[in-house]
């Protein structure tokens, strides 16, 4: 199961595989291999998938003689878990620092609704 500690224990390749599964939803080993940068061998992809299944970060289903891999939780929870790991690793566990880094980008475009939602979340955080 994906949690906030999961990202810390993953190799670069494992994170790449999880990212592909998050983006695509349900994939085969061959499809993952095709999307990886500097693709490893098919058996290396299968080994990574086996490890991720053993860690409980992916689930494997068989259908029509083919193995399919997906997340054991919804993509929203997985994204939050991955983001927490990045905030911890790159921003010294400071959500405000991470938010300021994202919001400070020159090419950032927010809709009025997105800006309102952010302001609401900031207001709620101040009350805590």
- Compressed to H and E, one letter per element, the order equals HEHHEEHHH
Number of distinct beta strands: 3
The domain count comes to 2
Percentage of β-strand residues? 5-15%
CATH architecture group name of the largest domain: Orthogonal Bundle
Outline the biggest β-sheet.
3 strands, antiparallel
CATH superfamily heading of the largest domain = Winged helix-like DNA-binding domain superfamily/Winged helix DNA-binding domain
Rg over C-alpha atoms, rounded to the nearest angstrom: 18 Å
The CATH C-level name of the largest domain is Mainly Alpha
Let me know the average pLDDT.
87
Question: Helix share of residues?
Answer: 55-70%
Explain what the structure shows.
This protein is mainly alpha-helical and 128 residues long. The protein has two domains: 6-70, Arc Repressor Mutant, subunit A (Orthogonal Bundle); 92-128, no CATH class. It has six helices and three strands. The protein has helices at 12-24, 29-35, 42-54, 75-90, 95-103, 112-127, and strands spanning 26-27, 59-63, 66-70. It has a three-stranded antiparallel β-sheet. α2 crosses α3. The longest helix is centred in the middle third of the chain and has 16 residues, at 75-90.
